[in-house]
Amino acid sequence: MPRYSAFMYSAALSVAVVAAPPAFADVTPQQVWDDIEAYMTSFGYEVAGTETLSGSTLSVKDMVLTMDIPDGEGVLSFSAADVVLEDAGNGSVRVSFPADMPITLNMTEVPDGEPFDLTIDYTQDGLEMIVSGTPGDLTYDYTADSLGMRLTELVVDGEVLGRDVARADITLTDISGNAQVTVADIRTISQVLKAASVDYDIAFNDPEAEGSALFAGSMAGLLFEGSTSIPLDMDPEDMPAMLAAGFAVDGTFGHSGGSGSFAVTEDGEVTTGRTSSGSGTLQVTMNADALAYSGRTTDVEMSMTGGELPFPVETAMSETAINLTLPTSKGDEPSDVAFGVNLAGFTMSDMLWNIFDPGKALPRDPATLAFDLTGKVKMLVELMDAEQMAMMDRENALPAEPQSLTLSGLLVEAIGARLTGEGSFTFDNTDLETFDGMPRPTGTLNLTLDGANAVLDRLIAAGLMKQQDAMGARMMLSMFAVAGSGEDQLKSTLEINESGQILANGQRIR
């Protein structure tokens, strides 16, 4: 979670609106402001503003949060003309924000690009926030009719680009949520955010290159639940040290469905398309042990036409899912690693099928690709250290030593055939010669293929394969597989032994 995400909290202080008035302990406006300022400062922001206390109301005028982009390439800032914190009368504090709060990014050096300045207006309508609790244990409750971000100015290499060249508008509606902030040896933020919908409209136009792009759409039923642990004293530019000090993120994003459209113009040709999906989730975890992502979306549909496509393209999937786990810290002990994919129920339109199978010789049943890989690796560098990772890349070296790998849940279903499998391997990192620089694996892979001969017959009938090619494919299969117990079933056991020999069903092939 980079420092930029601190704006997410400031948008939970801007994103905020009060919903409930639960206050059994007193907190003052000054204490609330001190908590906000301490949080921002811990992420490396410079906080400026003029504080004025009048009775039980604290006003922070001309508030500006400023952060230098690493390596001196630019400056990011967030400003609000007047943030007002007032005693709500029941031991809690009401926080009010202006309707418009500009975010500016000034980039003086851009690798392989031109310097630019941009301004985004962060807007709110009906934003209300109530803060209750005691110093060190505060709860921010908020609601808002809408929150938005709008690109209002873009200057590239000194040239002002209008909204006819670049525009970006994002709006959330009917927002509610809360964030509980506790401070002890570490700062912990637990929060829930809900929004009825989010709409986006993003477009770019390059008259000189005769190119443009437009993306628009919406999602409904947004939900975020998560927690963040932040060390009280940390260097935001040293992520490995932050993780070692206890920095951690665990969050889940979800939505109930969405749709979008796009149009891309290149060299005078226009490609347009539409997408839609059912519900979806994305979970992200990062701590000193691992970085993990997992996402799932249902009922995905896409259509495209125009451009270099000679015909409309329509595809759909009943489910798409992916998961990835990587260790974050260098260590002497093996750490868990995982990668999994599930692309289920893939279908495409008859028009697309008819291009290569007009006679419908091939079954058009939904196709599926799924597998899960799990294993152990020993990290040689810090995953979040950009310099160490770049060094490994320059030296063409792996950042980790593989220790073991297990394949489970392999499933490939398409055009009437079905492949399943599972296996496991260990790796000898002291032997880099047997397999040309790769640690020598030892283990077994078991595969079962149903319907292979029927598929070859159908490919011949569809005119996609000649008889002699099919014969060669059958001979190749016979070298690696034996007949299974089912009709038109082949089985194969591939083994790599400790001598580095490769065997197929007991017969040495290497």
From TrEMBL:
Cite the entry's keywords alphabetically: Signal
Q: Which Pfam families match?
A: DUF2125
> Which N-terminal residues, if any, form the signal peptide?
1-25
Spell out the protein name for this chain. Uncharacterized protein DUF2125
Q: Which InterPro entries match?
A: DUF2125 (IPR018666)
